[in-house]
Amino acid sequence: MEDIVKKGNEAGYEYLAFTEHNPSQSGHTDSDIVEILKKKREKVDQLNYSLHKVNSNGVKKVFNSLEIDIKPDGSLPVPSAGLTTLDFALASIHSSFDLKRDLQTKRVLTALAHPKVKIFCSSHRP
User: How many CB atoms lie within 10 A of CB 91?
Assistant: First the structure.
């Protein structure tokens, strides 16, 4: 993360967001996911503290975010305790592309109604 902040400074960015994909439910328990996100939150907080101390003309703030898969019912596969660690979330469709149009629309609108979701990303159809 420090290297990315350094590159952001070199590029003249003021804000950065780390938005990797959510940890998979198939490879992690809910507790694992929450722990991964808590550790990331701590790291982002440390970066922001060091940026605040330096008070440079470069990166002023690093945001803790995540690109989250939207499940077919519109829910998000990240436990509430994990979502609270985020500044905001991006939501994307990565599966179940064959839903009927009205169900797909409901799916997206349900996900976008979550208070942490601020951005809808492109869908990744294989």
Answer: 24
Q: What is the mean pLDDT of each run of 10 residues along the chain (126 residues)?
A: 92 94 82 95 95 80 96 95 97 91 95 96 70
Q: Please, how many CA atoms are within 13 Å of residue 38, restricted to the half-sphere of its CB? A: 9
Q: Does this model's pTM top 0.85?
A: yes
Question: What number of other Cβ atoms are within 10 A of residue 80's Cβ?
Answer: 10
**Beta-carbon contacts of residue 82 (< 8 Å; ≥ 6 apart):** 30, 33, 34, 36, 37, 38
Contact yes or no for 53/67 (Cβ under 8 A): no
CA distance 49 to 66: 21
